[in-house]
Amino acid sequence: MKNLVVTLFLFFGMLSAYGQWIENQGIPIVTEGTSIYDNKTVVGKDGTTYFLGYCPNLKEAEDEYDTDNVVYEYRLQAIDKNGVRKFGDLGLLISDYPNRSYCVVNDYLYLDKEGNIIVVVFDARAHEYEDLMGAYAYKISPEGEKLWGEDGVLLGNGRDLVAAMRMVELTDGSIVFAWMRSHGQLLAIDLQRITAKGEPQWEPTEVGLNDETITYQYPYLVDAGMNQFILVYAKGGAQDLYARKMDFDGTSVWSEDTRIYRGGWGSIPLWTILDVKPSGDGGVILGWNDDRSMTNIETAYMSYVTKDGEIGFSGASDNGDVKLNYSEFRNFNCKVMADPAGDGFLAFWRETSEGQSWQRMVMQKVSKEGELLYGDEGVMIADFEETNFGYNSIQPGNEGEAALFYMRQNAGYGDVDVLYITFKTETGEFLMEEPHRLIAGTKERSSMTSHVCQEEGFWILKWKEDYKDENNNTQEKHLLYRLDYRVNDTTSVENIITISDNFYHSNEQFMVKVANAGKAQIEIFDLMGRKIDDINNVELNAGLNTIAWTNKSGAYIAKMTVNNEVLNCKILIK
User: Fold this and answer.
1) CA angle 158, 161, 163 (to 5 degrees)
2) Residue 477, SS3?
3) How many other CB atoms are there within 10 angstroms of residue 424's CB atom?
4) From CA 117, how far away is CA 263, in angstroms rounded?
5) Mind listing the pLDDT tens digit for each residue in 92-145?
6) Given the DSSP bridges, would you call strands 345-352 and 3-9 parallel, antiparallel or unpaired?
7) pLDDT for 139-169, tens place per residue?
8) Where does the chain hold its CATH 2.120.10.10 domain(s)?
9) The domain 3-7+492-573: what is its CATH number?
10) Do the Cβ atoms of 117 and 111 come closer than 8 Å?
11) CATH architecture group of domain 273-442+481-486
12) Largest Cα–Cα distance of the chain, in whole Å?
């Protein structure tokens, strides 16, 4: 028999005291009434979520479609861990100079180790033509102060076509920026290092990659420790992948750049295929899909470059990369992450039939030697359905655990679910019976990203929804959702029993105390927010009541509605 212990907590929101977070739906990043377009989202150690977007200023325009008069403003918004906006309803204004109103391949936002926000905006303040825009970097304190001045720091010359901005912080607190720019009929990669005080240190074209006959594009930056970093980039028209380790002064550390993959994507934008992440040991891992056999069947691959510039999977294939499964289905959207346990790497991707009408979700783990640890076909997350999956991502959770997030299209337009599942990284064993639907498909949703705050023990999801304004124009809004995965140490069974008199020891039942008699509806959830049981029409007497219920050992939440009052009861079974 199991010992069951229960205590009551009164609070406003389901599963937590976060008054601004809403059960089963996201909260808007800014107030509705006009569109906000997404650039980047990051989450700080204190649980604050930062979002940089651009919003149309309609002061001189009839509406957003009045393109001659509308001005797009870059605004930074901060949502604290309780779901409260820190920078007002619309966010902190960064720049309202003329700019392009649409761009999808720039990394504008970064958080340094001190909790400051590094923002890069692109505008035409230095030139009357909007196609000649400059990149300007700002350092914003958590309170909203512009630490590098009101005008920021110019990156580059302010006159080139630029895109694909990336950033990484070095050990001394300086920030390295990398971006690609026009170089005649080709593309080049420039780099710049800005000190913590906002002082440029390099000549971007001298430190970067440029040639009169070769194009360079799509830079990615990964911290390598010891004031060094790894630059991953694409070279040539076939977009061959290379890695270069660079030092504090902008010089190369390795004797030559490491070629990761010979390429073969042609004109396909690499940012739509490639995922680049730290390996956890000073190197870098990459995930992508390609059709190197020319069979019209794309396959997911992973590559690992060590801190010394060696290909970690050199024995796995002729190319030194690992084929992540042998299912013979088409593979897309491969996302990768180093297992926090330090014993390998995780991957999560979408598989489809030949015509992509049937789709499923699959994950895999790869050892540092290139062995497939979850079998030749990986572990299936969601079985084949005649639908669309997408916007998949992977995040760490509790020790030895991780979570997978993705979207699923249901009946048609305006019917998109948000789902997730947790698992043990060592074995691939699920911690839930099946993927849980966090947000039901009642809206047209897309562009979902996931983020983790390991210090506070929760994940943040961000996605886009379309809606109609009062003039029946389609507008775009972005929403956040908080999902807790960690039980605070002070709520452990041993601690609570020691410090609280409000616990009742029993067998396969729990006790609740109410002031007045009434009929209660009880919903029981696990700590991931997954509903696991209902107890309907429970007659409660004033005072202490015993309710029969049991489950396997663990922690649960009972949400009880009685006399129009909502009580939340934490249940601990050991």
Assistant:
1) 105
2) strand
3) 14
4) 35
5) 999 888 776 555 456 689 999 999 999 998 888 877 655 667 889 999 999 999
6) unpaired
7) 999 999 999 999 999 998 877 778 889 999 9
8) 273-442+481-486
9) 2.60.40
10) yes
11) 6 Propeller (2.120)
12) 84
